[in-house]
């Protein structure tokens, strides 16, 4: 830890810096970066060592913690803040800009080592936190490139961004008065795709793609990666929540069939014939809508009622639906003649998109889906606490490195708070 000077020597600016230095201290103490440091030091071997690898790495982490949007901003802070230089291990003058350019290039060459740091901390958190990884959420986040758009000259020159492309995301909904609203977002850049623990709001997997890559494609790729590298994470996940961008039959099937993870993914209306309901399983007085809500119709009066949820039978892979008259004590004139008075079972195979292990029409599904907002809060922290709203990054590899460093910093601070007896602050990035 940095040596703290006597209070009489402080300015008000110094006092504000102490909280920042403590946050950096947490990152430096709990980030498992030894393997990366040894690799970079071995690469340097007997080369010039005016700016040691570990000191350079520490200042890079300081740039992340203190939300510096550029190397020049970081260098200015290092020049004025002696405590920061001491904490980072700098014993000479602040490294010039070209030294950081070379160091970042070396870091990108060892991208897998940064990913390994992230994965190690996810494993450490799973050992420290009860039920970590049981409820997951997935989402994609738009992030602009610092470049303004495609350049007609595709040759990279370090200033234009030849990796980024254009993305578009459309949101639709209904106002309280029944009118439809529509919002379209367009950007030039990338997408950051995250899978997070929904209870603790901490990332467990990430990827960075071009803006045009659909969320579902990136989602399948991340699941493939987890199956290959960290199958234990999928093995302990009970649910995975996502918006309708992940509404895909193959995704729903593989989560449940391969990993026993219950998909809690919003559904799109794919019915093109204008029907509100369709007959279910050739039962003449039972219908359902595209969201999986099931209705019975009284044989005598034709009155429509929503059937009660009876749960999921794992051994049969069926959803149970119960007679609303029996379940709620409702008077039904045709109950004696009703062929489904004893309830029905709906096999998931009837329609794997509509009928899922957690009944879409149940309170349980709504409660599990509400946890999806955890990933939105993690995305918000990337914007607010790690400077993704205002950055100077061009190029997909640079953006992936920036994302990896930010997420590693987030996890390291969470680990530090937990290990030092402050678990209630594990999501705090500003104190």
TrEMBL record:
Residues 23-104 form the Transposase InsH N-terminal domain. Pfam families: DDE_Tnp_1, DUF772. Residues 154-408 form the Transposase IS4-like domain. It comes from the Bacteria. Signal peptide: none annotated. Residues 147-173 are annotated as: Disordered. This is Transposase. It comes from Salicibibacter cibi.
